[in-house]
């Protein structure tokens, strides 16, 4: 095996490790519940040491306690670039490195363009798009040291516009473009970038409370499993965009 091949093997986490994520760390935004929580849980189970963030102290403290000793919770609003930088720096100080960045924090306001307020527009764009940029920007120096993986949680709304989706569609279309450019700009440093684009997921997004009627939807743990599978791909191969849909969408007539 050539030296380059050995390096690929090492980066893909395979042959030399007893546990896939042993000695590695991950930073997951918007992770007090839903997809972010499930991803953090899956990574911790794989041996990663994980930092999770949320805007609310009580929620992030509870989530970190539930996830276990290898998970630390930090209050951080991704709309605040300085707060994001501080959170990433603290992660590197605590764990010594940063190997995986999962950009998940997001909000949604849905209204006809005439009714959508400027404040709602700014909240969505500043969180879903600018927040992603701030998070990635803050993580680059640490990721460049040994290579790593950036995963952005986009949406099928990033390619399929719908009525009332002006802010949300714009943020996810933009996030897809940002993710593609990040991949082109950083791949020379052995940093992979993947956009995960789910359809309907059973989460608390947009004030929804998951319930038994959500059985047909994608579950947060499905996205978590996909994340782990992506991280285990050979280093020579990059699934740069992954679209995910419910296999059997709900067909009940809407009231």
TrEMBL record:
Keyword line: Oxidoreductase
A Pfam family recorded for this sequence: adh_short
Gene Ontology molecular function terms on file: oxidoreductase activity
Residues of the Ketoreductase domain: 24-187
Taxonomic superkingdom: Bacteria
Cross-referenced InterPro entries: KR_dom (IPR057326), NAD(P)-bd_dom_sf (IPR036291), SDR_fam (IPR002347)
Keyword Transcription: no
Family, per entry: Belongs to the short-chain dehydrogenases/reductases (SDR) family.
The protein's name in its UniProt record: Oxidoreductase, short-chain dehydrogenase/reductase family
Organism: Deinococcus radiodurans (strain ATCC 13939 / DSM 20539 / JCM 16871 / CCUG 27074 / LMG 4051 / NBRC 15346 / NCIMB 9279 / VKM B-1422 / R1)
Lineage: Bacteria, Thermotogati, Deinococcota, Deinococci, Deinococcales
